[in-house]
Amino acid sequence: MAEEHGAAGAIDTRDLPIRDPYPHLSPTAQRILEAAIRILDREGFNALTFEAIAAESGENRASIRYHFGSKAGLVSVLVDAVMYDGSLELIGAVAHTEAGEQRRRALIEAHREVALRVHEYTAFYDLVPHIVRDPELRERFRQLFVWYRDLDSWALSGSDDPAAGNPYRQLATLTTAMLDGLGLQLLADPDFDLRPAFDLWARMVCDYVERIAAG
Amino acid sequence: MAEEHGAAGAIDTRDLPIRDPYPHLSPTAQRILEAAIRILDREGFNALTFEAIAAESGENRASIRYHFGSKAGLVSVLVDAVMYDGSLELIGAVAHTEAGEQRRRALIEAHREVALRVHEYTAFYDLVPHIVRDPELRERFRQLFVWYRDLDSWALSGSDDPAAGNPYRQLATLTTAMLDGLGLQLLADPDFDLRPAFDLWARMVCDYVERIAAG
DNA sequence: GTCTATATTGGGATAGAC
DNA sequence: GTCTATCCCAATATAGAC
User: Fold this and answer.
1) pLDDT tens digits, residue range B114-158?
2) b or e along A83-99 (b: 16 or more beta carbons within 10 Å of the residue's beta carbon)?
3) Are A132 and B125 an interchain contact pair (Cβ–Cβ within 8 Å)?
4) 3-state class of B166 per DSSP?
5) Does the model's pTM come out above 0.85?
6) Does A152 lie at the interface with B, CB-CB under 8 angstroms?
7) In angstroms, rounded to a whole number, what is the distance separating the alpha carbons of residues A67 and B114?
8) What whole-number distance in Å separates Cα of residue B112 and Cα of residue B107?
9) Would you call A181 and B176 a contact, using CB atoms and an 8 Å cutoff?
10) Contacts of A207 in chain B (CB under 8 A)
11) In angstroms, rounded to a whole number, what is the distance separating the alpha carbons of residues A33 and A49?
């Protein structure tokens, strides 16, 4: 009675516009990248200097340039790592669910979990100004949104057929926007309880999906 | 048959957690501030140096420090100016509308207009990382969100009584989040057409409001 | 591959002339 | 109130020793 995993895997990591940077890095480079992410979370983009990264990682200043070429090279990999982490969680939650109501619930629950963790949004919003002004990074950013809308509409449709997601495309756009926007309100006030708002959204989505399904 | 303006003005600029910085500035300081905003829009926060502002405004480097005390002082006023501009437009759209359907429509139309102009979101998202890390700025940011939720729920309720907005508070949170999130998607892709998504949102809001009103 | 030392740039702050 | 000159510092980049 369970769906075949192959079918449910119609959307997986291979469709992601970004890839996991870690497997392509030497152990030293991985340590540097991890240190850079910690600094970005804690102190923001402006604190992301070779000096600070060297201290945090235990590596030498010059070693950072050796492994990543330049500041821009490091930032590019950093952006991939942050984006990839966020996407991976969503894929993991829905990729192997059965078609139908179960998948829709899994998607909404995964969204809720992500939304409630402000910590990841700090690094994300720190990177946005730089992503938007770098043509290459912005293109990856754009593709990531496309991917999010694809995944969301696919999961909302509850069908394994990607084309079935089309009626849900605008709803997916709204859901993605909602999550980013709620993250911003959480940044403004870490004590703000966004669960009631999220619950309302989940109800509105379910109502809408039922109406679509009913014709 | 029209409501009194005094009553419709239950929410106005006096309730804003930030004030218009311009009236308190000398003509020179105003020119400097305008130049700073242009640079922020065009080149981002990192390009916002005394050097660049002096060149853009035609004023002298030292004059900037004289008028704003320090870089942080300038940024603080800059944040107020950007936030105030966004808020003013929304107030203008709904403050003098009649209670009921007209006000709800005015609110939604005002939101649509703001959402479609990516240009203002660039400066906003450039400032976010700095706002979030400065306790004073973040507090004003938090209060601004509270104000947005108040205004939105008040306008959605269609009543002049502020308390009538309570059932719409979560919906207001979602609307605010939606707009910020759509702005982000527009930053990622200026050609992305978010009107269909916005139309869907307007419909979902109307449906919800009708259901609440019906009891 | 790794590190030291140094070059170069550009930021904000300060003091004081006008 | 406005501007000039200068100081200090921190950042990335470079060259070359090991």
Assistant:
1) 988 877 789 999 999 999 999 999 999 999 999 999 999 999 998
2) bbebbeebbebbbebeb
3) yes
4) helix
5) yes
6) no
7) 43
8) 9
9) yes
10) 207
11) 12
